[in-house]
Amino acid sequence: MSGKANQLHLDTRAIHAGEPRPRIRGAITQPIFQSSTFEAGPDTGYHDLGYIRLSNTPNHASLHAKLADLEATEAALVTASGMAAITTSLLTVLHAGDHLLVQDTLYGGTHNFVTEDLRTFGIDHDFIDAREPGDWEQKLKPNTRAVYVETLTNPLLQVAEHVAVASFARAHGLVSLIDNTMASPVNFTPALLGYDLVLHSATKYLNGHSDIVAGVVAGSRTRVQSIKQRLDHLGGSLDPHACFLLHRGLKTLGIRVRQHNANALALAQMLDAHPRVRRVYYPGLTGDPQHARASTLFQGCGGLLSFEPETDGDAAQALIERLQLAAPAPSLGGVESLITRPAATTHAGMTAQQLQTVGIRPELIRVAVGIEHIDDLRADFEQALAGLAA
Q1: Catalytic residues, which ones?
Q2: pTM of the model
Q3: Residue extents of the structural domains in the chain
Q4: CATH code for the structural domain at 5-250
């Protein structure tokens, strides 16, 4: 793209940013460069060799440019999974003897990595409530090096005080990392608030079709290059065909995410009014305690919501099984609706005490709302809820 790229709307940039110019043999869609290695000059350094594991094929290069444009950062890097993006980034900015401040309601895989794996590298942590800035400073230590949060937490949709997090990190010389998977750059661009590193499970909204696993790191050129060198050694690279699919998925990101936003809000409103639903977690609802903050920060609240029916875990599972459209599967961000009980799936690695501490009840149901027609989705949930015992 030209220097005027940021003057264009996101929908336009999602299609045109990063595309090879001139087009390769005139191809409107970039070809897949399914070659493990490329010719090298006599003075090529190791990290610059053309090689899939070094994430520098033509498919990688185009994708990196597109993602950096969408996240308003200098550079971006794709990885083999969202967890590869998270773990490689943390292992790059933190070293033995360092300390991390981390949000207390994390995705289960991230929670387990922080609480179980980081300590084997000699890295300590403390949890913070990212909605309460007044409590953060007392958790600081002389060896604190970074702070890690999520845009919207999974599955309870908590909204951190993101302006305060970025400001706090700058004031104390910390690297700020944010997992922006749940919002996507359509709804939120953390770099514009001053976050240093923006991470994604590109498996979700960025790709949008439930057919690949991938991750993204975006930030300054210097930081992303450091993470790339660590990734080169750890081997968590994305293959060119998966790059092609992610590249293709990104082109419809805006139109998909806006429909996810609209469908999730409409379904949340229906559930919120239903007599057999105890509580709905979705900050797009005007009655949600975090609605004002979410409305200030985000363009939309995404396609994920959670709710607690007036029942126990077994009956909640039976409700899931009565649905015809929402498939009982983990993950999110695809065009199809998915549904799961976090206590039994995405957060099953946490102990009962940990689940209770973060507020995940056995009957909590998480819905990854797709882009089906909203009338059909509402009707499906109505019939499933009707089956609950009075």
Answers
A1: 53, 107, 179, 204
A2: 0.94
A3: 5-250, 254-386
A4: 3.40.640.10
